[in-house]
Design goal:
- By secondary structure, this protein is an alpha+beta fold.
- The protein folds into two domains: about 90 residues; about 240 residues, BirA Bifunctional Protein, domain 2 (2-Layer Sandwich).
- Helices cover about 40% and strands about 20% of the residues.
- The strands form two sheets. A seven-stranded mixed β-sheet has the order 1-5-6-10-9-8-7.
- The termini are far apart.
- Bound molecules: adenosine-5'-[phenylalaninyl-phosphate].
- The site of adenosine-5'-[phenylalaninyl-phosphate] has 24 residues, from strand 6, strand 9, strand 10 and helix 10.
């Protein structure tokens, strides 16, 4: 078969197969088979040199014409296939703008934040200012100035996270309670009267359990002035309990021990879940523990800058997570900071 005849055969085969092509991949393969560097047209063109000189011009022209015809047909088919692919994409990705939207998850306040705000509001109504004090403290502020020297057995009540410091430097720690705030507040006010609450995070190197977390909140309160008595402490905490749990709630003060208050007490309220008859939440005692408290120890008053012969004061410290657990019958404190939305969504 002459080269011209072979060219004609290739052209008609190429045009016929191009006609059936519907995908980009098949188009690419077709182009490489016929028009590529190693395609049929290029292969045949290498035989041009073997032709007699007189036949070459006509054959060359024919080559050019076939290549141009295939290029043109390819471009046309490519446009058709691309348009079809685009139409298909448009159809499959079409948006139904009449469908209802997906509801957004709305953020909400953490239950600890809610109770902290509730407690803060109650004390603000009673004339207490809200103060902040550092979460990282020195051993001196967290313990020593609160009447808890290094060898004091009461240190066992507060298992501590110490922060690494250079040898000989003062010991630094994550505060185990908000009580060092008492010293900060007194030193900022002395010898004027002070009446503040100090809400914030505390950290203890605790065995985590249903009632103990390593990180939790406390609300500290302190009032110092002249003629402040234990009756003021009682009146303040009973007033607080009535605002939090409703007027008429029964309260009681139990003797207790804290190195920085003397005398020291615990405030209990009647169990709100069983009305004092005894249940699982109050461990069948009928009472719920709400706050540690007491009259500020004379040494601590002195460390705060007040002369205990003239001034007196009371202090208290409570745990908002425990209060929230009791309010909502939550049986495990670990829910609070687990980040589980199923828990958090229950507090609107
Ligand atoms: C204190 O920390 C004292 N500083 C409180 C105080 C202040 C007494 C001022 C007198 C005057 P206590 O260790 O009992 O006391 O803690 C107080 C409250 O913090 C507890 O009643 C409890 O509600 C909460 N709490 C203590 N440890 C944890 C813990 N690991 N996880 C959750 N809450 C805790």
């Amino acid at each position: 078969m002459s080269i011209i005849d072979q060219l004609a055969a290739i052209e008609s085969a190429a045009l016929a197969s191009l006609h059936d092509i519907t995908t980009i991949d098949a188009l690419t393969a077709w182009k490489s088979d016929y028009l590529g560097k190693t395609g049929l047209i290029a292969k045949l063109s290498r035989e041009l040199g073997a032709l007699a000189a007189a036949d070459r011009p006509a054959a060359g022209q024919r080559f050019n014409a076939v290549r141009a015809s295939l290029d043109g047909a390819f471009a046309e088919r490519e446009a058709t296939v691309n348009a079809a692919a685009q139409g298909h994409a448009f159809a499959s990705e079409a948006l139904d703008v009449t469908l209802p939207g997906r509801p957004l998850t709305v953020g909400r306040l953490h239950p600890s934040t809610r109770v902290l705000r509730m407690i803060t509001n109650i004390f603000a109504e009673m004339g207490f200012q809200v103060w902040e004090s550092p979460e990282v403290e020195t051993d001196t502020l967290n313990f020593e100035l609160l009447n808890i020297p290094a060898d004091h057995p009461a240190r066992d009540m507060w298992d501590t996270f110490y922060i690494e410091t250079p040898p000989g430097a003062e010991k630094v720690l994550l505060r185990t309670h908000t009580s060092p705030g008492q010293i900060h507040a007194m030193r900022a006010h002395a010898p004027n009267p002070v009446r503040v609450i100090l809400p914030g995070k505390c950290f203890r190197y605790e065995q985590v359990s249903t009632r103990h977390e390593m990180m939790f909140h406390q609300v500290e309160g302190i009032a110092v002035g002249t003629n402040i008595t234990f009756s003021d402490l009682k009146g303040t905490l009973i007033g607080f309990a009535e605002r939090l749990y409703g007027s008429g709630i029964k309260t009681r003060f139990r003797p207790s021990y804290f190195p920085f208050t003397e005398p020291s007490v615990e405030l209990d309220v009647e169990c709100i879940l069983c009305s004092g008859t005894g249940c699982r939440i109050c461990k069948h005692s009928g009472w719920l523990e709400v706050s540690g408290a007491g009259m500020v120890h004379p040494d601590v008053l002195r460390n705060g800058g007040y002369d205990p012969a003239i001034y007196s004061g009371f202090a208290f410290g409570m745990g908002p997570e425990r209060i929230t657990m009791l309010r909502h019958g939550i049986d495990d404190i670990r829910w609070f900071f687990s980040g589980d939305e199923r828990f958090l969504q229950q507090f609107i």
